[in-house]
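ZP: hey, is the magnesium ion complex queued? I don't see it on the tracker
AM: it wasn't, my bad. submitting now with these inputs:
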Amino acid sequence: MSSARLSGVGVSSGRASGPVVRVAEPLGEPPAVPAPADPAAEAARIRPAADVVVARLHARAANASGDAKDVLETTAAMAADPALLSQAEKLVTSESLPAARAVHQAAAGFISALEAAGGYMAERARDVRDVRDRLVAELLGVAAPGVPSLTSPSVLVARDLAPADTAGLDPTKVLALVTEEGGPTSHTAILARSLGIPAVVACRGVLDLEASALSVDGDTGVVDVSDGTVRAAHVAGRASWNGVGVLRDGHRVKVLGNVGSAADAVAAAAGGAEGVGLFRTEFCFLSASSEPSVDAQRAAYVAVLAPFEGKPVVVRTLDAGADKPLAFLSPEPEPNPALGVRGLRVAFDRPDVLERQLEAIASAGAETGAEVSVMAPMVATAAEAAWFVERARAAGLRRAGVMIEIPAAALVAREILAVVDFASIGTNDLAQYVFAADRQVGAVAALNDPWQPALLRLIKLVGDAGTALGKPVGVCGEAAADPLLACVLTGLGVTSLSMNHTALAGVGAKLASTSFDLCQLAAAGALAAADPASAKLAARAPH
Ligand code: PEP
Ligand code: MG
């Protein structure tokens, strides 16, 4: 095993090695059989299991501080709750259920009562689920699901991580992240990049690797068994760039930041972003179980807009659904969530939620002095775009645009641009939908390569429409973060590029070294290519 080497897709730059910590998979509902031979003895297992869970939570709370400490202490109190425990004991004795199943069933009653109460009480349902899972795991003798609390720097290995789990990772403890599933444009990959954690996704076999330590290369995607020595991430040196997106012939292409939190915004401003091309507002509320009030939203947006006073910031309205579920906007179960009610489609059913969000955005813009525009996600038609613009204007927002991330929208880009102030191409979803290749599935990651000529040809349609109508067209998908591809996108008529803060200087420096003529040559070569590798070669020729 010591010579094992695996290969996945490197999605967040840097190298690191250290001991492995595995993220346990979610536990399903424990089986109701076999019935315990001695129900009284089975019921008597519940309190000692709860004592172990409570002691563990207290020990973790003792080493934590601030909010984390409070959360752990509240969870410990809940794990000791006599009402939950005695209800579970009763289910074991009266219905002959195994203890783990009884705990699950007892917790279900509490969870539905809390959810029905709504508001603050509904927030607590998540804590009961957490306690339930810990108790069930203890009773079954397996590891508790979810990201364990790390006491020392470690390499995290998981099947995949939810965006909310990834957003909560502590970059001082997580040396690197390796997932068996996931694609390069998945939100887990995007969040790992923004936290500066080297990451490899779609790494087949990593879950079966019995290594206790790994070395991870987030650039090449190579994962090796290592000796356990901790080596900190090495991130490539910063290219030199003066913070203005301009080609050497004076052609302007704004270089902007993608942000989802105040920390991202500070990092983007420090990295030289001329503004923000994509503020993913849903990232602020991944853990909220009820809709944040207008005031709470305004406060969250102010924190992100503050570093950009006097600068352009494109705030995207909630893009809930598929791999970014928001508990307060969850649709009915759908067979294909990525093709279901997500993005702006949620707002058609709940225009009140959109109206409250627009109100909060307008007031955060006024408070911070940022030049705020709003943008709708997942727009398919010009009529949908017009619907959104009307609401944005009614909320007093002067500039309103839409994302082009559904192939139909790229095909009717002219009609869409005619009714909006700007468009921004979301290459992550545009690739997923044009190739029918789920961006979260590692097995189809090659189709989601932003160098695919089919994707570039769709982008050209949008760039041409923008040029014809004299309206700005940006790219805010991960494609914008690749310096050579940034030249191709510029040649296709794109007027701004928005990316993770770590990519700003590299893209800015590359643009400063080229000219619009060369970008157009690179674009023509890439468009005519038959596959991603030849597209890249063709783009490199003039560069
Ligand atoms: C995209 O789809 O390219 C995009 C920028 O939006 P998100 O990644 O948040 O879906
Ligand atoms: Mg998208």
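AM: back. The pocket of phosphoenolpyruvate (ligand 1) is lined by residues 278, 280, 319, 405, 426-429, 476-477 (CB under 6 Å).
ZP: great, adding it to the tracker
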